[in-house]
Amino acid sequence: MSTARAQRLLEGRILPTLARLAAPGALLALFQTAVSIADTYFVGRLGTAALAGLALVFPLVMLLQMLSAGAMGGGVSSALARALGAGREDAAKCIVAHALVIALGGGLAFTLLLLGFGDALYGLLGGEGAALAQALEYSHVLFAGAVAVWLANTLASVLRGSGNTLAPAVALAAAALVQIPLSGALTLGWGPLPRLGIAGAALAYVTAFLVASLIMGASVWRGGLRPQRAHWHLEWRVFREILRVGAASSLGALQTVLTAVVLTGFVGSFGTAALAGYGVGVRLELLQIPLVFAIGQALVVMVGTNVGAGRGAHAKRIAWTGTAVAAGISLAIGFAVAVFPGAWIRIFSDDAAVLATGSQYLRIVAPFYVLFGAGMALYFASQGAGRMLLPVLAGTVRLVFVLAAGALVVALDGPLAAVFAVIAGGIVLFGGLIIAAVRAGRWES
């Protein structure tokens, strides 16, 4: 990070600086939204069983993205921002080298675990018959390429941590432009390309992240953060600098995904159509994540740079400003789909049962998206500050609530609407507790 760039992060007006840093990510979110809609649309053309299979794998894809981009990626961005904010450029290059080692290890771990135990896991989630077969077909291809996803998200975090949010946005947008037509072609068999079914969507996903890795790798290697030979000498103290935020955030990500896994299992007990409708409805939350992530990654670097420079009170003001923006976006989305749920569900399926379940989900859960947006933004801001204990505990409380309340609903043969009410309650707990934690916490370097 140049001295001029660091000074802008330290002294610039909050909202314009936040907008400048978040704008590339917000534009990228439009591309990622198009990717998610397109993938679900293409898979939806294969039938309800394929949509249900996609819903079964969704929590694990969510985990892959959250660990590599939001959790460990947040640890990388935070460590870099704090090092550069304190003027330690040589330490920053060491962080880059160690981050890439973590990415390789994380990607290989996903490949081994999901290829070895994916069938058992999806079975536990309620997958059976055609839905389970579709889930395995998608999962095996996607997680075979998990290293590409980890490398792309880690390199993006390196660039963002240095204050460069444009380069990763351009690279990932270019990858999206590759993924959308490739997914349709391979899933449905356009032109000379083979019809691979749901596996085609997974292959397009991996290819897109490989393209992004190559683009961002070239950007890092041409820039000022390229590690030299001495920086590849692995040391625990450097890993610790990344992991003190990344490990705690990873625990939070695991809790979030475990919550999604448990809820998928609860919904799966109501049948394939219910699972497909839930999967289409919950995908709207996935689409909010890139928007909030754009703001969140700007908060990581802005808060981290200010905390590194000993300006904790200003870092808090930055956090609340970003949170207000994120909450406003989620509020608008939640209101729109709660009032007109069919407009979203019909994009993916005309099945009456899928439409009924998805609409019911959005009417119950979407009004609380405002707390989802606020909680996510403050989670990222806490990463920048290096203060993750209380946000992670908020996720723990949400998980315990969902486990207990959801199990009670299923044990009492309660209606599907009650399961959706549990989901809404978990969002309220998560957002409310993180807001309280940040208000009470002290952010000093």
Structure description:
This protein has helices at 3-11, 14-44, 48-85, 89-124, 129-144, 146-161, 166-188, 198-222, 236-268, 272-308, 312-339, 341-345, 352-365, 369-385, 389-411, 416-440. With 445 residues, it is mostly helical. It has one domain. Helix 2 packs antiparallel against helix 10 and helix 3 (48-85) packs parallel to helix 10. The longest helix is centred in the first third of the chain and has 38 residues, at 48-85. The protein is globular and about 60 Å long.
Write the layout of secondary structure elements.
Elements: H1 3-11, H2 14-44, H3 48-85, H4 89-124, H5 129-144, H6 146-161, H7 166-188, H8 198-222, H9 236-268, H10 272-308, H11 312-339, H12 341-345, H13 352-365, H14 369-385, H15 389-411, H16 416-440
Helix pairs in contact: 2-7, 2-10, 3-4, 3-5, 3-6, 3-9, 3-10, 3-14, 4-5, 4-6, 4-9, 5-8, 6-7, 6-8, 7-8, 9-15, 10-11, 10-13, 10-14, 11-13, 11-14, 13-16, 14-16, 15-16
Keywords:
445 residues; mainly alpha; 0% strand
Question: What would you say about this model in short?
Answer:
This protein is mostly helical.
Structural class: mainly alpha
How large is the count of helical segments?
16
Instruction: Tell me the number of strands.
Output: 0
Query: What is the H/E order?
Result: HHHHHHHHHHHHHHHH
* Average predicted confidence as pLDDT: 87
Q: Cα-atom Rg, whole angstroms? A: 21 Å
- The end-to-end span amounts to 19 Å
Tally of separate domains? 1
Proportion of β residues? Answer: under 5%
Low-confidence stretches: none
Biggest sheet: strands, sense, closure? none
Any idea what the shape is? globular
Helix content: over 70%
